[in-house]
Each structure stands twice: as structure tokens, then as C-alpha cells.
Amino acid sequence: MSCDPPSSSRATRATRASPRGEAEAPPGYRALVVVALSPLAFALVFACWTLFAVLGVELRRDLALGSAAFAVLLSTPMLAGALASLPMARLARRHGGRRVMLGCLLLICPFLWWIGHAQHYAEFLLAGLGLGLGAGSLAAGLVYVAELGPARHAGLALGLYAAGMVGAGLGYLLLPLVSQAYGWRTAPLFYLLPVLLVAGLLWLFAEDHDPLTPVSDPTGDDEARPFHSARRARTARLARLARLARRLAGWSPWRLALPYAFFFGAFLALALWLPGHLATRFELSLQGAALRAIPFTLAVGAGQVLGGWLADRRDFRSLRWWLCAFVLVCLFLLSYPPFELRIEGTHGPLSWHYAAPLWGFLGLLVPMGVAMGVGQGSLMRLIHRDHGGDMALVGGLALTLGGLFAALLPPVFVLGSEWLGLSTAGFMFLYAALVVCMLVMLADHALHRPRAQ
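^ that's the sequence the OP posted. Answer follows.
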């Protein structure tokens, strides 16, 4: 029996989504446009976030950066994105996801240009923070797809949207080629045209939901209204903040957001860290390492679609445990560094050297990526099912937690590697974080089990 009691917000979402009745429901082409354009915006934002990782060799050489300084540079887009996710999701709920997505895409354009011309480390940090504001497009797109996507296949639509994470693989494939042909400062400018193109398509073909209609003054006193409108606006804002604080104080929004945040944050951090890790561990060029990291991003994207599609057909709450257990085993095996075992035998010492080959490393990484993608897709469908009427809050909270976790990981990976002297310290930390996440899930299950029975 499930330990997560279903929320009553589904009826509220249905009422809000069609306030004028079934006769005026959004046409089918609108859902098709939403499902088609939103993943493109998602992919471009993710590709922009991988700029620093793919251009790491050039940046570290030209700026004389150490490992810790470079890790902070990798974390800046994710930190800004985490802080922007929840507010942008709330704005999308009130003013329309298309408007917020369009604004965020246009907002990152000057920062892309700035990266191509920046000279100092502080400039790159500020430009990275600006790129992180593109996460508002991710959060707004999540609300947009949840509200205007196909209701019968909401999980598939959300999975297709989140499959835009393969934009990280797009950066791995194209940016090294552009960098070699025209120089690394041209690579950020390479994204300007696609970002502007997708923004133009959203402006031309996508539509927003009907805005929330303000409550009219029952007295009809137009002369007194200007004197009290500012006070009413402040009172309404304070009331919304109070309701938001009450919702966040409860455990319900966090129940599904926490495991989603682990999968989302771990993928995002690994997508940035893997090229450098593969290049160092297996003595590859950065371009060769980036190409070998593409299967991991594709596996996560395919898993997103599969997880959303499966969650449309049944309530896969128990699937979280199996996915977490499988990912835990993969992380445990990936955490093993090369080592040598020496045993004093009766006829002399016996030694055995272990070093995971590249094919074995990728053989663990790809199925783990599929499991992480299935976890994200199914969990987001469950969030939509339980909290569809407040997707901006719970979905935005999941993206915020995931972004904060992802921003923490690159410095932790570097510090762990330098302090412990182990190249696999990042996988060890992810293993420990997943154990903590599963313990929280277990405590939640034990707390709600008697009530469910």
C-alpha cells in the first residue's frame, strides 16, 4: 500500500485548467506546440550550462585556474538557477509560462555574448550567474507543460520535456568542433542563433493559459478604489507569502521533491564533471572524453520519456525504491578506484591489480543513467498527479533542491579528490547522499504507514 496519500488538488487543477467548461478547452495543436517547443528550450539551457565544462581546458589555461576555482565556476549557473526556479515557476503560474520562458531565453543572450569577450575570472563568474537565470525557463516550462500539455498523457509530455537534458550531449558534440575550427571564444556565440530562434518560435506559435482574473470590488466605488488598491495589493502579496510559507512548512511538498532532487542534481553535476574525469582517469583528450560522456546523457533523456510513459499507466510509487537500490549498486561499483591487492602466500607474495576499463566504466554508467532518468520521469508524473493544482510550488521546489544539490557537488568532488587523493571521490559522495535520501524516504514510509493502513 502506498505511503503517500493522494492530494485533493487534482480537482482544483481541473477546475483551474478549464474555468469556462469543456466547450472552450485548449485545441489539440496547442498541446502539440507545447510538447514540441518546450523541450527545445530546455535543451538549449542545458547546453549553455555545459559551456564551462566542455571548454574547461582552454579556460583553465587562459585564466590559470586551479581545480577549486574551476569547480566554483561550474557551480555558478546551477546556484543561480536553483535560486531562480521557484520564483519563476510562481511567475509562470500567474502570468503564463510562455512569457516567462521567452523572457529567460532572451535574458541569457547577452551573457552568452559576454562569455565570448570576458577576460577576468570575476567576469566569467558573473556571466555564469546570468546563464543560471535561464533555469527560469526550465521551471516555467514545467508549469507550462503541466497546464497546457495533453492531460491523458501528462507523464509522457513531462518526460519528453525533461528529455531536453540531452542538450548537455549536444554541447559535448558541437562545442569542441566549433572551438577547434574558430577558437573557443566563438563557441558561446554559436548558441545565440538557436536561442533566438526558439524564442521566436515560442513568441509566434505558443500561447499562454488565460490569466487569473482579479476579483472586482463589490461596492463599485471607482473613486475610492485608487486609494485602497495599493493597500489591497500589499495585503494580497502578504497573504500569498503566508500561504506559501504554510505549504512549505508541511511535509507533503517535500515527499516527492527530495528523491527527484537527488536524481536531477546528480545528473546535472555528473554531466559537468564527467568529461574532465574521463579525460584524467583514462588519459583521453577532452573532446574524446566529452564524446564518450554522450551515451550517459542520452540514457538519462530516454529514461525520462520511459519513466513518464510508464507512470501514465500505473502509480509507480514503489518504483522509487528499486531505482534507488539499483543506482546505489552502480555508484558503489563506480566508487572503486584502481587498487592493488597483495597477499603473502606460502610460496611468496601474491598480488592482484584492479583498474576498471573504459568499457566497464561506461557499461555501469549508461544503465545507471537510464535508471536515473526513469526515476525523474516517474517522480515528476507523481508530483503532477498529487499536486497538479500547485505544480508551480512543488515542481519549482524540486528543481530548486536539485539545483542546490548540483551546485554543491563540483566543489565537493574536487575537494574530496584532493583531500582523499582518490579520483572516484565524487561517486563516493553521491553514494553517501543517496543513502541519506533513502533513509529519509524510509522514515517517511514508517511515519505514514499506520495512517495508510
